[in-house]
UniProtKB/TrEMBL annotation:
The gene is Nipal3. The chain crosses the membrane at residues 36-56, 77-97, 103-123, 135-154, 174-196, 203-231, 243-262, 274-295, 301-322. GO terms for molecular function: magnesium ion transmembrane transporter activity. The keyword Transmembrane helix applies. InterPro entries: EmrE-like, Mg_trans_NIPA. Its main location: membrane. It is found in: Membrane. It is a multi-pass membrane protein. The keyword Transmembrane applies. This is NPAL3 protein. Pfam families: Mg_trans_NIPA. It comes from Rostratula benghalensis. Residues 388-408 are annotated as: Disordered.
C-alpha cells in the first residue's frame, strides 16, 4: 500500500512545486510595476513644480512696475501656480512610497529640463542669433543627455521593495551600516559648519555640501513617512508607532535648515551654479544614504549597478550643460554711474569718484574720505562786506552781498 501511494503523492506535489516557482516572476513584475509607478509620479511631480514656478515667475514679471508690493496675491496666475506647486510636491512625496530612494532622487533632473524649455517658450526669454549656438544648442544637448540619463535610471534602477512598517524602519535605523554612515556624516557636517561659521568659508561647495547632507536625511525620512502612510491606507495601521513621529519631526527640521542654507547660497552665488552643483551633490548624498539605510542595491548584479551609475553621470553632465548656458543675473548697483552717461561731464576732471563706493556707505552722494583734497569738500561761501549808512535814524541791514562782475 505504501508503495502504491507514493507515486500518487509525488504527482500531487509536482503542481505545488510548479506553482511555487511561478510566484517569483510575478513578484518581480510587480516590483518593476511599482518602480514605474513611482518614477512616473516623480516625473509628473517635477514637471508640475516647474510649470508652477514659471507661472509664479510670469505673474511677478507682469507686476514688476506695480506700486502695490503684494499685488500678485490678487492675480489668478499666481494662485494657480501655488495650487500646481502643492500638487507637484504631493506627487513627488507619494513617489517615495512606491520606488526605491536611489531611483526617485536623481529624477529631479526632470525639473531642470522642464525649466530650461519653459523658460524659452513660456517666459519668452530673448536671445540674439549669435548667442544661439553658444547657449541654446548646448542647452538642447544638455536636455538630450539628461533625458538619456533619466531613461537609464528608470531602466536599471534598484529593484528592492520593502514594506515601510515600523519594525522594518526601526531595524534599519539601528543597523551598523547606517550608524557608521551617520557618524561620518555628522563629523563632516560639523567640520563644514565650523569652517562656514567661524572661518567665513563662504564657498559654494561648502554651503551646498551642508545642503546635500541635510537633504540626504530629508530623503530618508520622507520615504519612511510616505511609506508608512501608504501602508496605513492599505489597512495595516502604522501611525501608532513612535518611529513615525520621529521621522516626521526629522523630515520637517532638516527641510527647514536645508532651505535656510539654500537661501544663504542664493544671496552669494548665481542660481545656475546652485542648480547644477546642488543637484550633483544632493543626488550623490541621497543615493549613498538610500544604499546604507534601505539597502537599495542589495541583490543587484554588477551590470545594473554600473548602468545605473552611468545614467547618473549622464544626467549630471546634462544638468551641467543646461545650467552652464543660462543668463547670468546682473547684480543691483545702488547708484547711477554719472561718467557712463553719454555727453555728461564729471564734476572733477581728475577722475575723482562722485558716487558712493560699494565698499563704503550705500547712501547716495557719499564720498570717500580723502584728506589730501580738502578744498573739494569745503562748501562755497559768498563774500560779505559790511557798509556803514550815513543816516542814523534809518535802520538798514548790517551787511550787503556784493555781486561778482564778469571780469572777476
Amino acid at each position: 500500500m505504501e508503495g502504491g501511494n507514493s507515486p500518487n503523492l509525488q504527482l500531487q506535489q509536482l503542481p505545488l512545486a510548479t506553482a511555487a516557482v511561478s510566484v517569483q516572476p510575478h513578484t518581480d513584475s510587480f516590483s518593476y510595476k511599482e518602480n514605474l509607478i513611482g518614477a512616473l509620479l516623480a516625473i509628473f511631480g517635477h514637471l508640475v513644480i516647474s510649470i508652477a514656478l514659471n507661472l509664479q515667475k510670469y505673474s511677478h514679471i507682469r507686476l514688476a512696475g506695480s506700486k502695490d508690493p503684494q499685488a500678485y496675491f490678487k492675480t489668478k496666475t499666481w494662485w494657480c501656480g501655488l495650487f500646481l506647486l502643492v500638487l507637484g510636491e504631493l506627487g513627488v512625496f507619494s513617489s517615495y512610497a512606491f520606488a526605491p530612494l536611489s531611483l526617485i532622487v536623481p529624477l529631479s533632473a526632470v525639473s531642470v529640463i522642464a525649466s530650461a524649455i519653459i523658460g524659452i517658450i513660456f517666459i519668452k526669454e530673448k536671445w540674439k542669433p549669435k548667442d544661439f549656438l553658444r547657449r541654446y544648442v548646448l542647452s538642447l544637448v544638455g536636455c538630450g543627455l539628461a533625458i538619456v540619463g533619466t531613461y537609464l535610471l528608470i531602466t536599471f534602477g534598484p529593484n528592492s521593495h520593502e514594506k515601510m512598517t515600523g519594525e522594518n524602519i526601526t531595524r534599519h535605523l539601528v543597523s551598523w551600516p547606517f550608524l557608521l554612515y551617520m557618524l561620518v556624516e555628522i563629523i563632516i557636517f560639523c567640520l563644514l559648519l565650523y569652517f562656514y561659521k567661524e572661518k567665513n568659508a563662504n564657498y559654494i561647495v561648502v554651503i551646498l555640501l551642508l545642503v546635500a547632507l541635510l537633504g540626504s536625511m530629508t530623503a530618508v525620512t520622507v520615504k519612511a513617512v510616505a511609506g508608512m502612510i501608504v501602508v496605513s491606507i492599505q489597512g495595516n495601521l502604522q501611525l501608532d508607532y513612535p518611529i513615525f513621529y520621529i521621522m516626521l519631526v526629522c523630515m520637517i527640521a532638516t527641510a527647514i535648515f536645508q532651505a535656510t542654507f539654500l537661501a544663504q547660497a542664493s544671496q552669494l552665488y548665481d542660481s545656475s551654479q546652485i542648480a547644477s552643483i546642488g543637484y550633483i551633490l544632493s543626488t550623490t548624498a541621497a543615493i549613498t544614504a538610500g544604499a546604507t539605510f534601505y539597502l537599495d542595491f542589495t541583490g543587484e548584479d554588477v551590470l545594473h549597478i554600473c548602468m545605473f551609475a552611468l545614467g547618473c553621470l549622464i544626467a549630471f553632465l546634462g544638468v551641467f550643460l543646461i545650467t552652464r548656458n543660462r543668463k547670468k543675473s546682473v547684480p543691483f548697483e545702488p547708484y547711477i554711474s554719472m561718467d557712463a552717461m553719454p555727453g555728461m561731464q564729471n564734476m572733477h576732471d581728475k577722475g575723482i569718484a562722485v558716487q558712493p563706493d560699494l565698499k563704503a556707505s550705500f547712501s547716495y552722494g557719499a564720498l570717500e574720505n580723502n584728506d589730501s583734497m580738502p578744498e573739494i569738500y569745503t562748501p562755497a561761501t559768498l563774500p560779505i562786506v559790511q557798509e556803514q549808512h550815513g543816516s542814523k535814524g534809518v535802520s538798514a541791514p548790517p551787511y550787503r552781498v556784493l555781486e561778482h562782475s564778469k571780469k572777476e
